[in-house]
Structures are given as C-alpha cells and as structure tokens.
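Hi, here's the filled form for the chain we discussed.

Project: internal
Contact: R.S.
Residues: 741
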Amino acid sequence: MAQRRRKPPNVKGEPRTFDPNFKGPVVNRSCTDVLCFIIFILFIIGYIILGLIAWVNGDPRRVAYPTDSQGHFCGQKGTPNENKSILFYFNLFSCTSPSVMVNLQCPTTQICVSKCPEKFLTYVETQLLYKKDKNSWTYYSQFCKSPFSKSDRTLSQILMDDNCPAAIFPSKPFLQRCFPDFSTKNGTLTVGNKTMFEDGKGKTRNAGELRAAANHINKILDAKSLGTKLFEDYATTWYWILTGLIITMLLSWIFLILLRFTAGFLFWVFMSGVIGVIGYGIWHCYKEYNNLRGQENSHLTIYDIGIQTDISMYLQLRQTWLAFMIILCILEALVILMLIFLRNRIRISIALLKEGSKAIRYVPTTLIYPVLTFIFLSICICYWAVIAVYLATSGVPIYKIIAPAGQCEHENKTCDPEIFNTTEISKACPGSQCIFAFYGGKSVYHQYIPTLQTFNLFVFLWLINFVFALGQCTLAGAFASYYWALEKPEDIPPYPLFTAFGRAIRYHTGSLAFGSLILALIQMFRIVLEYLDKRLKVLGTRECKTCWLSGPGEVGTISRAAAPESQNNISKFLQCCLKCCFWCLEKAVKFLNRNAYVMIAIHGKNFCRSAKDAFNLLIRNVLKVAVMDKVTDFVLILGKMLVTGCIGVLAFLLFTERLPILIEGPSLNYYWVPLLTVVIGSYLIAHGFFSVYAMCIDTLFICFCEDLERNDGSTEKPYFITPTLHGILNKKQLVPQKQKE
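And the returned structure, exactly as it came back:
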C-alpha cells in the first residue's frame, strides 16, 4: 500500500472556515500571556519603588532655586540665605572662558544676594570713599562672600582670597540671577547709561565687551521682552483659541460622519488632480525641449558637461527636459494603469471608508476615547519627568576645579571649597576656582543613578506603548462588535466600547504588555544609537580641537588624528544603516502589533498566535492591504489638512483684524503666536479623531477579509458585510434580511 504523502504547510496559513457559533468578539475568554503580565506588574512595582527611593533622596528645590559656589540654595526658607534669593556673579567677564561650554559653569565665584547692584562701583573707589562716606562700604560689602567692617585690605588680597568682586555693575534680576542692565541709547549699547567703565582691575571696558562676555545671558534677556509680549497675546486671545479648538472638534466629527457620502468624491478628485499635475509637467517639459531647439550648446549631453554645481546649466540642455518628460510619461502611465487594473479594489476601499463613517455614527463613544488616552499619557509623562528630576537632584554637592584659561592640568577634578585656597592646586593654576558642579555621591545608590535613569526611561517607553496598545485593542473590540452584528444597529451589543475596554484589561493585559515590550526594546535601542552618535561627535570635536591646539612641534598629532578618518566614515555608514534598519523595524512592528491587537480583540488568543493569524490573513489579501492602506492614508491626510486649514484661515483672518465687518479682532503684538497655537492644537485634535477612524478602518478591513473566508453569502453562510460592499465584490448576492431570519 502506497504511503500517503504529507501535505506541505501553507506559507500563507490556512483560510478561516465557517463556524456557526461565531458571532463576533468571543465572550468566553481566558487570560493570555500570563508570564508577560507578571513581568509587567513586577516592572510597575519596581517603578513605584524607584519613585519612592528617588523621592526620599532627591530634592527638586535644587532645580527651582539657584545654587551658589558653595552648593547652598538661594532663597530657601529656614537657611541663612532665606532673604537672599538672587544669584550674583563676581566676574562676568570670565564667562567667556572655553570651559563654560564644556562644564556648563561660569568659572567665577557666585553668591546669594538680596538685591542686584544698582550702580557702578569698584573696590578701589570704595576704599577712597570710605573715609568720607562709610555707607559706601556698607553698600558694597553686601556683594562680598563674608561681611567685614572695614575696606582696609588691598585689592590683591581681596582678589586672592576671593572675598569680594573687583567691581559691580548696574544689574537687574531675571530668573533669580543678576544680569547686566543693557539698554540702547541713540543706537549705542550702554550699561546703566554708560558705554565705558572700569572693571576694577585697572582696565577700561565698554558695554560691547560685557555683552560679549554675557552672550548667552543676553539671549535670555532678549527672550524676556518677547516672553512678556507672548504672555500678553495669550492673555488677550485665550478664549478665541479655546473657541477655535472647540470648532475643530465639531468639524472633525462632522467630517467623519460625512465621509460615508464624500469619500469616493474626495479620492477621485485627488487622483484627477494628480493626473492633471503630471500631465501639465509633461507639457511643460515638451515646451522647454522644443524652445531649446537650435540654441547654442543645447545639443550637448549631460555626460559632455560633467558634474556642475550650477544646476541651471543642466536646464539649458534638451536632453535634461527629454529625460524629465520620459520619466513623467512613465509615471503618468503607471498611475492610469493602476487606477484601471485596481479599480475594483479601490471601490472596495472607498466602500470600507464609508462603512467606517457609519460605524462611528453607531458607536459615537469611541470619539471620546482619545481623551482617556491623553489622560493616561499625561500621567506617564508626568511620573517619568518627576522621577528624572528627583534622580538628577539626588546626592550631596560635588565641587570641581575650573580654570578661566581652561589649561589647568587639574581641571574637572573634585575639590573641597573650604581648603582649596590653601592647597598647592590654587598656586599651580592661578585664577582657578573650586565651584559647585552638580549633586552626586560615592554610595552604591549614587553610583547607579545613571542605571536608574535608564530604567526610568525604559519603563516609560513600555508604559507609553502599552497605553497606545490598550487604546487600539479597545477600539478594535468596539468596532468588531459593530461589524459582526447581523442586523445593524439592532444586534450591536450595549456599551461596546466599555465592554471591549474591560475585556482588554481583564484578559489581555499580558498580551498588550508583550507587544508594547517589543516596541519599547526597539525604541530603546534607537535611543542608545542616537546617544552613541552624539557622544562620538563630541569626542571627535574635542580631538580636533586638541590637534589644532597642539604646538608647531606636534604636527604629527594632526596626521594621527586624520589617519582613522576612513574608519570614522565606515562607522558613520554603519550607524546610518543601523538607524535606518531599526526605523524600518519599528514601523513594521507597529503595523503588525496593530493588526495583532485587532485579532486579540476578536478571538481572544495570545499575542504570538494573534500576530501570526493577522499576518497570514493580510498576506492572503496583500493587494487589498496595499490599496486600502494608501487610500486610507490619503483620506486621513486630506481630512486633517481640510480641518486644520479651515480653522487656520479663520484664525488668520481674525487675528490679523481682516474681518472688521463680521467681528472685531484683538490687537496683538505677534499675531502668529495664537495663530500657531490654534493651528497646532487643531491638528492634534483632528489627529486624535482621525486616529479613531484609522483604527475603525483597520478593524473593519480585518473583519471584512475574515468574513469573506468564513462565509459565502448563502442562506447558511450569510455575509456580515453591507449589501453595498457585497455588490462591489461581484460574488453571490447577499441574502435579504428577511430570508436570514
């Protein structure tokens, strides 16, 4: 007897078979991916414990309050600096040191003061005025580290002991720091109405030098007036902004409801426009090609002129316009052929878009779900940010040596400010300072703070992806309940959204955590790649600076640095390849996860089984998937553009006071500030609404493909699709509703 040959497994998986008991999302389920659920819960518990540890050891006041050179807070209640809430810099000119950019610290003494200086005064002038007016020293001494009754010390002693500044300038407090009081008088930059002044060390300075020394501070000063004006604009237009966002919500909802009538019209108008634009391009290329006939050098080829930086030279060749015309003709032919041969699948996609609009009309509570997602995301983001701040402010003050010239061999080493002036380092590096750098420590906890920050970031990514996964699974369950209702809307179960949310939380938290874990790992690896890329760039810049700073006898250093240039190019190429690959991988995993969550919502299987079934189902309908995806993307992009554009135009006309007949617009400093707020807010709101619609279309498409495999439209196996969709399929006619009963 001949042995029966075993049938090879189907690569695309076996199609679904008819099941008379299947009526939509499975009710009787069991918990899936329990192991991943346990791991997820353990990570959340660890995340909570991390928050408690960071809360005990951290101190966010270190971020809120400025810190002096001794690591003390300015303005903190219950401390000697309680009434001294402003930070004062002894020598602002030292902030031009190269070490400022490396160490993010100005290499000068910083103390807490109750108010900023209001006039020009040098230490030498104070000594001369002391005999006549002792109040001058009282005023000056408040800007010294430690008060002393007489100004009998010499300038060199003061500078060596670093007790007082050599000079003070008129300043104003901003961000709890004393910044120079810059102003412009007759087009000339001044400080306290002076263009020239003494720096207290025997040099005459001008306001331009001080501005250059405080360049980064000036950027903040320039932002001060801008920030005030922006605040005024927001205070004037906040109710108009709120009104615009409310109108955006209404327009988005109306657009989704009307898609059942306008989806086909919008798509074909867009495709007609694409064909028309390409056709105009072909005509323009032919016109340019014909006009260049007989002109000098127009007969040359691109190969003849070679590579040129002036692009206009290529546009003077007939061959260029001929190549453009051929490319556009091929593109035009491909578009037309695609529309001809894929017309039935395009009609199916448009019909599904219309069906999605109808589904949202029958399950309107789904439009509220983005608000819940926003609340969950806000909680995750706030918790992550708070932990990051508390971890960053954990520890005791750490002081480091900073030299103004940036050439001290001991620079960046830790030091003790109490005894620094008595050590050999202060003598070996004249002008160096022992300044507060950051908060840290040598305990086990402080050593693992970078690891804890990494854990904080990873769990944050996991939770964010879990929130999105929960939303997708919930919406998929609600829309699947709509599709598998034989008679719509009579057979739609009550409260489909809340039922789907409860099922996802109760049974499939582990599966959702599994899918979001995969995404979090990929995103974490991408972040690590970006971090390494930044670090390598910084190291390369430092090496380059070291080479150029080398003396004439060290020219070989440059050649040694240039030697591994080819290796750097290879490493950059590999980094780009890795970034591209992981970007593509993230997009692919997001697509697969999205469809896996639909299968989980319908059948209640574990993540791997659902992902496999969804993948096989899509592979069996790969052409429909491609057409459906592009048609849906077009409609969603067009919808967002229409809604955002309408609100943006209305906001522009209102804020620029171009609607005086209808309504009087507000008088603003910068009309683009509320305008951009309205446009960005409108886009985000429209994106929230249309993301629900996109999930609806994906769910209906999965159900649609499975419906075609399970049923054949007969009385025993009726389709669950609408008669409109069935008529497009050119298959057996849908059994009338009465016959089904």
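Let me know if anything looks off before we file it.
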